[in-house]
Amino acid sequence: MEFRLDPWSSQLVVEYDKLFKYFGIRPFKEVLPELERIVKPHHLMRRGVIFGHRDFERVLQALRSGEGFAILTGLMPSGHMHFGHKMVIDQVIYYQGLGAEIFIAIADVEAYAVRRLSRRDVIRYAKEYVANYLALGLRRERLHIYFQSNYRVEYYRLMQLLSRRVTSAELKDIYGDVEPGKVMSIFAQMADILHPQLPSFGSHRVVLVPVGADQDPHLRLARDLADRYSAEFKSLGLGGLERPASTYHRFMSGLTGGKMSSSKPESYIALTDDPDVAAAKLMRALTGGRPTAAEQRRLGGEPEKCPVYEMLSYHLVPDDEELKRIYLRCRGGEMLCGECKREAAERLRRFLQEHQRRLERARDIVDSVVDVPDF
Amino acid sequence: MEFRLDPWSSQLVVEYDKLFKYFGIRPFKEVLPELERIVKPHHLMRRGVIFGHRDFERVLQALRSGEGFAILTGLMPSGHMHFGHKMVIDQVIYYQGLGAEIFIAIADVEAYAVRRLSRRDVIRYAKEYVANYLALGLRRERLHIYFQSNYRVEYYRLMQLLSRRVTSAELKDIYGDVEPGKVMSIFAQMADILHPQLPSFGSHRVVLVPVGADQDPHLRLARDLADRYSAEFKSLGLGGLERPASTYHRFMSGLTGGKMSSSKPESYIALTDDPDVAAAKLMRALTGGRPTAAEQRRLGGEPEKCPVYEMLSYHLVPDDEELKRIYLRCRGGEMLCGECKREAAERLRRFLQEHQRRLERARDIVDSVVDVPDF
Questions:
Q1: DSSP state letters, A305-356
Q2: Which residues of B touch A (CB under 8 A)?
Q3: What is the predicted ipTM?
Q4: Would the pTM count as exceeding 0.90?
């Protein structure tokens, strides 16, 4: 595979580069060739959307040896699931296909205590997320989806024990805010990341946490905690703790430019949006087009700056060759934004129609996949 | 009952009076006559050791109506159980005799995270406490003894949810220290106090928490939280939250004067101390005696200042008339400290011999009374 799309080659790489420089995150492209020798990489890896990692070599090693590994991810049930959220679960489904055991934490405590939603809304959003995950292809085998407020006792014990070797000064450094609700959800997150290593959850020593770049502080703290507790956990007969591995993906841009934000419905497309409404939203999106059609024919468009191209690259065009053709037609000035948007909107409409058909069936089995708390 | 012993009539009442004045704790003697009309008060009540309360009227009402009530108490497994710790469980056993449902929290997380004991020591001390409780007469019926790290999921949900309506400024005001381990155990304590009101724990609306005077900050916060969450919990179908009731007892003095302290073995007698060693320790104790025998015969002793008299009054002389005779013989200068100590030491030796016989049997059933965590 020689053709690699890197939609943010100029503007944003600098910022992400800081993660390499200051925090020791390694470029994902360093491990990509070795991954390719074992399995086909996910399109988000092939396209440079997953751009960084820590200790992914341990996953490679697990894939080679067949020893197995676990994936830990979380979801925040504070609003409707949109395409920005879809990236993580796409990766999870990919790893599930490679044989990983899957742990998915529903951050209902943070949604309630920090984001201050009602319990009813939190539970409703959480169930919608889970239905979406299933509709997207998440399978029930070797799958543990749990509410942070409704899990097994060893998880809570871990959460409590981890509070011993952390100071409030440290939390303030990492998170700024140390209000009690935040402290509680930080320790829930630490337990999320580390608990698959406990014997009662499978003693998974290789745990990969795929996250957006902003989530690295959690990973850094979790890695520190693994170091701080490993010897003690070994002496307690729990087999020690290894540092979690992680990958980092870029964020999607908002359709209207800037960040995709749950508080700006025009900036995102939810997986439950009406397909026609979603298509219309995409038609109104900002693009990487030039001020005039003539200029665009002459200079070509800028897919690197285009939220519509992002939707295609991240979500709507699985085939690399097909995406390449779209990229080159835009860059070459052959295809203008109107045509591109109409095609993208049509792809989006079809995707959502099909997804929402699956979603209807998925809703019926949510309660059998996740233990929903009664308050 | 007209004769009321109040061993701290002069020196310490002033300090305890602050609790009445500034924190709204009411004198227990205000509710004692009404309690006497219903049942025989505990000797710690009759003797003024339990000196204050909040909302004890609700317990009286529950006793009158027969609607039932719950007791919540906690133990800190950070050392051997001594006579200072015995006061709370004596009260619990009394209330169990009156039909109360009993909840006992083992603060293993605080012992581990804040007091920094090893998990093994924490678990060992906790089991010793529970064995002592059973040997003292705690019955297994309607009894819930639990490790904070090993309880039911609704308890942990409550603990997490309660973090929403508390600020770190507030915790700092109340507790001074807001290190993560402390924050975690504060919320565990809040869940301890409030969880008997949840439907899955019996929907107990009258929950009494008997504590030492230093524990009132927990009660004040728990009462505030009951107010803050009651409407929401009602709307969640949980039936609201009532403020917990509480009683306050005086501390035992150390045998060597000053405070009884787990870090000074000469200051306390553990329930597992060898009876002869314990008796010898008592013989070395400070007393309320005068500088010379002649002076003491003339002026009388001062039982109000005497740690040995405290042992008699709190623990070793259940009969009020018998205690009164000892008190009067001391005050009248008829009995000097040597004689009194020998008698007290003999009572102590007999008590410990009998207790430790029961303790051997109790140790065998600890694991069937409390679910001990495996790490």
A1: G-HHHHHIIIII---HHHHHHHHHHHHTTSS-HHHHHHHHHHHHHHHHHHHH
A2: 109, 112-114, 116, 119-120, 148-153, 156-157, 159-161, 163-164, 166-168, 171, 178-181, 183-184, 187-188, 233, 236-238, 373, 375
A3: 0.94
A4: yes
